[in-house]
TrEMBL record:
The chain crosses the membrane at residues 111-128. It comes from the Eukaryota. Keywords: Coiled coil, Membrane, Transmembrane, Transmembrane helix. Residues 48-106 form a coiled coil. Signal peptide: none annotated. The lineage of its organism: Eukaryota, Metazoa, Chordata, Craniata, Vertebrata. This is Coiled-coil domain-containing protein 167. Pfam families: CCDC-167 (PF15188).
Length: 130
């Protein structure tokens, strides 16, 4: 049976304000985030880096396709094939940009939440130690 938050705070396992604050944080984190979410949060910067690399490669490929389209005389079939490849690359780049935007927004939200929790704990600690 998982103890409730008031039971955790009232327990004598970690006496003092800082101990209670640590118990509260631990309780919130254990209840609010499953193991999968923790892993996703830790891997988010890796995902962002990977997506940025994919987007960069996609843009390089798109430039190469554009230069081939503009640079030489092509048969109608070759031109059609290159235009199809160009559209595919543009769609990929658009999807990567959307996913990057969502990951960055989530990153920003988590960072603000972390700062808010830190400030709140600092205020609580200062209030009870004065």
């Amino acid at each position: 049976m998982v103890p409730t938050l008031p039971e955790l705070v009232a327990s004598e396992h970690l006496p003092g304000t800082l101990g209670s604050a640590l118990v509260i944080i631990d309780h919130c984190l254990c209840r609010g985030l499953s193991g999968r979410n923790w892993i996703e949060n830790w891997l988010r910067p890796v995902k962002i880096d990977g997506l940025e690399e994919k987007l960069s490669q996609c843009r390089k490929d798109l430039e190469a396709v554009n230069s081939r389209l503009c640079g030489t005389e092509l048969s109608p079939e070759a031109r059609k094939s290159l235009e199809k490849e160009k559209n595919s690359l543009m769609n990929k780049a658009s999807n990567y940009e959307k996913e990057l935007k969502l990951l960055r927004q989530e990153n920003r939200k988590n960072m603000l939440l972390s700062v808010a929790i830190f400030i709140l704990l600092t205020l609580i600690y200062t209030y009870w130690t004065m």
